[in-house]
Design a protein that fits this description.
three-stranded antiparallel β-sheet; alpha+beta; about 15% helix; four-stranded mixed β-sheet; paralog of FGE (formylglycine-generating enzyme)
Amino acid sequence: MTQPVQPSRPRWWWPGMLALIAAASIGAIYAYRAVNTPSLDGMVWVPGGTFWMGCENCHMPDALPVHRVTVNGFWMDKTPVTNAQFEKFVKATGYITIAERKPDPKDFPGVPLENLVPGSAVFTQTAEDVPLDDYLRWWRYVPGASWKHPEGPASSIKGREDHPVVHVAWDDAVAYAKWAGKRLPTEAEYEFAARAGLDRNLYAWGNELKPGGKWASNIWQGRFPARNAGDDGYLSTSPVTAFAPNGYGLYDMGGNVWQWCSDWYRPDYFEKLSSGGEARNPQGPQDSFDPQERGIPKRVQKGGSFLCSDQYCTRYLVGSRGKGATDSGSSNVSFRCVKSPAS
């Protein structure tokens, strides 16, 4: 099956104009954790090790070549950051996310001031089948959309406290992580943790998309983007523990929401990294450059989201990569944090 290449997450400049937004067993791991490390609330100890990073069978050039990487042990949040957790951060700090701020006219020359209103990118299901080479058909800029109002001003997070927070830009995620005394994972850390010892497998849960005939994550079923059958039980985001965790006890490492990493994104990074032999604790390239991105710097995203399907985006594949502009979020982008052990 040929896997289509997924464009980066959308970045909204003003209405109508858009640039690309851009196995170890659980028992063994917890035994290691209990003996060797203190307990951190809401986090799982990832013991570190060496693995093959990337994806040989994804038909995605930026995930090649597959290469050997070693990472040190670290703590990782069991789940993406939830709406309830993010709300605590906002109440404690008064933080205002980028989606809630009025755009700076200096960043949008020529755009009428009345059009520069806070908002974010929201997925909108189409009424009929459409060509899959134009994502403007299912993404739209919604004034007033934010983490508190995922679909726009008339929506809220009431009843979705245990869902992942969305509409967070990379800068917002970094601000939360600093407040929590944590940091964002590197791309290598995220992929190592997602694999949980299942080296070179396709998914965070193994090599079968539906093990035992059951959906293992929140992704799209049906005809994208016109009909989501919801066979996995969800049409949008799902509670962060709705599906079984991987072998390290981590939830939502594939599907549900994209998750920010600390690395800059470059499509040729794996090629350059692999040329130096086995890499240890890679931190990503020094800057971001992609000839297709119009000079907009991007950071890496991992995991795919509830919008990924075998028809359009298969980036729930554990070795695949995503990207997004640092100042943009959307209705399927979130994050989780990690913490290095005390020296």
